[in-house]
Amino acid sequence: MSSSRSARLRYLVPAFATAAFAAGAMPAMAHVGGHGDPSTVPVDDTMPTTDPAAEHEEPHFAYEGASGPENWGELADEWATCGEGTEQSPIDLAGAVEAPDIELPDIVFDYRPSAVSILNNGHTIQAVYDEGSSITLGDTAYQLLQFHFHAHSEHTIDGETQPLEVHFVHQAQDDSLAVVGVLIDEGEANPAFDAVLENLPAEESEEPVVVEGATIDAATMLPADQTFFHYDGSLTTPPCSEGVSWQVMTTPITMSAEQIARFTVLYENDARPTQPVGDRELEISG
Ligand SMILES: [Zn+2]
Question: Within a domain: residue 183?
Fold first, then answer.
């Protein structure tokens, strides 16, 4: 990646997207990783500090209390979309209508194994994925950047939550984002996640922890039934930027209670409440 592309990416796309590129390709950063959290916007000392995010201490957000989700939009000017946006995520997925195949093509997954690089960014645990894995939605390819967890699930079905949800975050060449969400129910142990779950960094840090010698394969983390809900939404953390293409698999995967607890002992609650659907189309693949 050229430095000019790096600089452009850093300032135009949500921090959580640039973070994964940064982990592999960007030398100068204040934070690695993040999940829509402007505190992780990288600092580029070669650019003038015209970016307001670089000029003051970033506000803190949380999942309860005065800094909780109902107040995110007031915590910072650049987070206003969290309060004022009309196409926010997550949502309740009940009421989806089946879309014609031609309008909602299948997700074409091209996931490859990756080294294991795990970041505790203070809001979630994020596995930074190696370059070279992607999904294709219609004519658009999106590269897999990272995946991370929420407890409990952020998306609900008829108000029902699952213990966890994993978000696979992808970015297209035009910087637009597509997320694949997979709900995680308690059940059979899931060895696909062991290399991550057995190495969760307990402490927040700026640099990911690399698990030497281990690999993961996101292809093995997906449910066998790849029917999915689709809607247009947002990041589920500040700055809550809209224009994110959401795909949430209808079928949960499972993890054992012990596996789930490895995450929830660190992050008991990092789920934004569901947001109004408004007049958005909520589709289910055929
Ligand atoms: Zn997420």
Answer: yes
Spacing, Cα 28 to ligand 1 middle (Å):
25
CATH of the domain at 133: 3.10.200.10
Spacing, Cα 43 to ligand 1 middle (Å): 23
Determine the distance separating the centroid of ligand 1 and the alpha carbon of 133, expressed in angstroms: 19
Task: Show the domain range for 226.
Answer: 78-278
Exposed/middle/buried for 165, CB within 10 Å: 0-12, 13-18, 19+? Answer: buried
- Please give the model's pTM, rounded to 2 decimal places: 0.82
In a domain, 192, yes or no: yes
Walk along the chain (286 residues) in steps of 10 and give the mean pLDDT of each run: 33 41 35 41 41 60 97 97 98 90 90 98 97 97 98 97 98 98 98 98 96 98 97 98 98 98 98 97 92
DSSP code, position 86? S
Domain assignment present for residue 272? The answer is: yes
Structurally, the chain folds into a number of domains equal to 1
